[in-house]
Amino acid sequence: MHSNPSQKYQPFAPIALADRTWPSRTITKAPIWLSTDLRDGNQALFEPMNGERKMQLYKELVRIGFKQIEVGFPAASQTDFDFVRRLIDEDLIPDDVTIMVMTQSREDLIDRTVEAVKGARRAIVHIYNAVAPAWRKIVFNMDVPQVMQLVKHHVSHFKMRSDAHPETEWTLQYSPETFSSAELEVSLAACQTAIEAWGVGPDRKIIINLPTTVENATPNVFADQIEWMHRHLVPREHIVLSVHPHNDRGTGVAAAEFAMMAGADRVEGCLFGNGERCGNVDVVTVALNMYTQGVDPELDFSDITGVARIAEECTSLPIHPRHPYAGDLVFTAFSGSHQDAIKKGFAAQDPNGVWEVPYLPIDPADLGRTYDSVIRVNSQSGKGGISFLMEREHGVVMPRRMQVEFSAVVQRQTDASETEMTGDALWKLFDATYLATPDTAEAIVCHAHHVTHDGHSIELDVTINGVRQTLQGEGNGPIAATVDALGLPLRVDHYEERATGSGANAQALAIIEAAMEGVAGSTFGAGMSANIMTASVQAVVSVANRLHARRVGQEESTADTTAA
Ligand code: KIV
Ligand code: ZN
Known about the structure:
Number of strands: 14
Organism: Diaphorobacter ruginosibacter
Binding site for Mg(2+): 40, 244, 246, 280
InterPro entries: 2-isopropylmalate_synth_dimer, AIPM/Hcit_synth_CS, Aldolase_TIM, IPM_Synthase, LeuA-like_post-cat, LeuA_allosteric_dom_sf, LeuA_N_DRE-TIM, PYR_CT
Region (Regulatory domain): 437-564
Function: Catalyzes the condensation of the acetyl group of acetyl-CoA with 3-methyl-2-oxobutanoate (2-ketoisovalerate) to form 3-carboxy-3-hydroxy-4-methylpentanoate (2-isopropylmalate).
Distance between the termini: 57 Å
Bound molecules: 3-methyl-2-oxobutanoic acid, zinc ion
């Protein structure tokens, strides 16, 4: 990089608009959307879409609800020409949709463009030419009056050609290409030239489309430019003021939003921000940002994944997993504190109330996404996420201290494996930790039990230290009786039992927290069975085994310290 960037790059001069009003405005309604996926987006692909792909994407754009769709550059590409003809000849344009086609400012190209859309009920023809100094000087070698002459001549030419086809309702869109890099007075003069040449009036509207062909300043500068144009364009009431942001600085969405606040009526962009270089503005993000502010975007993204897959298929461009709203990972929390908050948020969310689940700016269900991937477990995860998954996927509700205990077990495992843990893997670990009989010689294995009617006495058929034996115990319930039968200094601190699953698959899950004399702290054990009694007995055996293992571990570490 340059050691002194100020020698190489110059900031874009701020706009003199001290009384700007846009910063205190909010967006209260959807703009007129124009999808340029089939034109600007298509032009930016390694391999432009063929007719079939274009048709697939076109139909999806119509389904989403775009009422204006730029369908191509028919004078520049036979594929586009044929595609536009097919839309018209096969009557594939719904009554409430208007197609737009682009042409450069050249007579023969304008003629061919008119040819392409002949017979359409309505058509927008998009004429553009660059107006910024670098393009005037380097690319076209034209001075400002020559640029104005170019605009006047070609708009008049289009007017003459389109007037010859009154069966079509024509709209002119004029874009001063490179607008954001140009002097405002020059852009305004070019637009006013187009407005006059087109003969704008109540029945003869024009779309003035202002692009950040190359995004070159912070989005507030673009907003100032738009507000300035909004104030100066005449007759404003017959002009649809449109913006066409690109995303070179990564602020295309902000530019579009600020521009709407500054007076833009219309936004052009592409799904998921496809387009030249860093893309056109992502209309999905702009629309859903609006939605999360309570404003109906009038575009249907209720199956965002379906839209994403079609866009990927048609453009052969993958959508980043962290792409706003659509990425595979955007409704996934790995961090423990986030998982905990999300879990609490879901539990507290009133289904008819205002959305306020922490860390989720939008209800994934509104986009047709499920909560399945909301919580994922890796070494960064905490008890919240783990218990959420255990509860949702396996119906296991753990008491809080058990959540803490089990999350440490999970953490050890994920730290060692350095991988994410699926819901199934989590269940296997839970099973191995609490439900399975430990694989040690001294483990207590309970083969059978018999509880008396009143539940106060029990007979256990167990193997302890490899010796099979029958034990008997008494207590004020089956748990106390089992503890008594095992003859261990166990103190049961907490017991709970819940059903998991339903109907024929219902199982009782018993959870016990207990402490044992000589063993530091308490721990949990669990038992699961279709029979509540059996689940309780197993839970006692489980906690006894776990406390025993802890005591052995304690003794071993004391022995190690003593030896050292
Ligand atoms: O980015 C741009 O300037 C364009 C215009 C032709 C509107 O795509
Ligand atoms: Zn563009």
